[in-house]
Amino acid sequence: SQCGDMAEAGGNAGSPGPGVVPAGEGAELAAVIGATVPTGFELMAAEEVQEKLGSASRISRDRGKIYFEVPARGLPQVHRLRSVDNLFVVVQEFKDYQFKETKEDALKDLEDLVKKLPWTDPLKVWEMNNSLKKKKTKRKKHNPQSTVRKEKLNSDAEEKEADQKDAKKEEDCAQDTAGVEPADGQDTEKTPEVASQNEEEEEEDNNEQSDAKDELQAGAGTETKAGDSRTNDGEAKVLKFRVTCNRAGDKHSFTSNEAARDFGGAVQEHFQWKADMTNFDVEVLLNIHNNEVVVGIALTEESLHRRNITHFGPTTLRSTLAYGMLRLCDPQPTDIIIDPMCGTGAIPIEGATEWPSCYHIAGDNNHQAVKRAANNICSLLKKNENKESSASPGIPLDIIQWDICNLPLRTGSVDIIVSDMPFGKRIGSKKKNWDLYPACLMEMGRICTPGTGRAVLLTQDKKCFAKALSRLGHIWRRGQTVWVNVGGLHAAVYLLRRTWERAEEKRSFW
Hints:
Keywords: Cytoplasm, Methyltransferase, RNA-binding, Transferase, tRNA processing. InterPro entries: RlmKL-like_Mtase, RlmKL-like_Mtase_CS, SAM-dependent_MTases_sf, THUMP_dom. This is THUM3 protein. The chain is of the alpha/beta class. It has a domain at 319-498: Vaccinia Virus protein VP39 (Rossmann fold, 3-Layer(aba) Sandwich). The protein is 36% helix and 24% strand. Strand 16 (336-339), helix 13 (346-354) and strand 17 form a beta-alpha-beta unit. The termini are far apart. 49% of the residues are buried.
């Protein structure tokens, strides 16, 4: 899946890389797939792709993206990856695209590029992806409606706020009547409004537009030739489309809005498709990162990180980030894994789904959080029952309300602790963290198995965490640190290993 040799494209010196790999006579169609992943966990996602698909990945210079090649028949397996948020098929990639100096010339080059791109095979892959999605129509239809149901039925103010953010994102999508979607990369990384927000899953969508604008959608039409689709009655219908442009870099003479508008106009002229910002069949992606340009077609309808959560809280963690944290601690069969500050349960639910041979315990001191987590577990059980069309055996997960500093667990009885600690922004405060963090680490050290136990903890309050860890260096030894972007906040995931030192016991529970 590496990029190709240097070549000319439309009079523009650059180095195009492959998109869909053309199939020779009798050969199988193969595609280069682009995937957006939680920033900081690109290597973890590449490991999962290698393990489950047998494909080597290339990590993009544009953080939060990886590329890998798969046969088109492997699309169902690609959708089952746990570490990816959104997927698209690469039409073509330019490693060193030479933009013209003036805005007019640069935009004219992008327009001219449309008719020179190898669209045929990527559209075949998109069509195959559509056929795959048709088999899951009922489940797909359920997802967008769940957001509406939440807004109507949920009395919890924080959950309503999360839904309103989703609604705002949809309004943003309707800002351009030409059927193009702008998203300047540099405008989205340091938005003041986002800088004060915690790891709320919806907020992450708003801020990381590079990922969120890849809220990729593919329609229900089956593409038969450029610009045509067949309805159930066999009548030809014109496909509807939009262009989403994500741009990062300060040396461009144009905005993402202008690039999307002009590129989208050329796409419309080339295919005779109809522009539609909201009810589209095809989403064409134009990703520009400095001199790297990638043109793609969306394969996912909505971000895959929403897969486990139906009841959101103020700081709901992405399921994809939860997967990365769990994978970091390398769970083994029969391990006991706890999340002592589980919130809405994203981490333990992901753990119980992906590592069913382990036993998972979730807990929180907040009654509302425990209730939301329990509701999310019930939703997962119902989904499993529907999938299997029979009584589900359940999942190896229990949930309890408890005090993080006084856990009702036996000393040395836990193998792994994975938790998203309070950032001190939307939950708690930075001042309280100075007492909370050392108390948490001490209690975690008590319940964790000496010598073999480990903990993976996420926090944005890095200064406080480092101080607490230095006071408890006899219990916890710092291993790997992964720097992540969570809702616009620069956070860290710490892998800690339990030393052989005996932890002080506060009281016996047994």
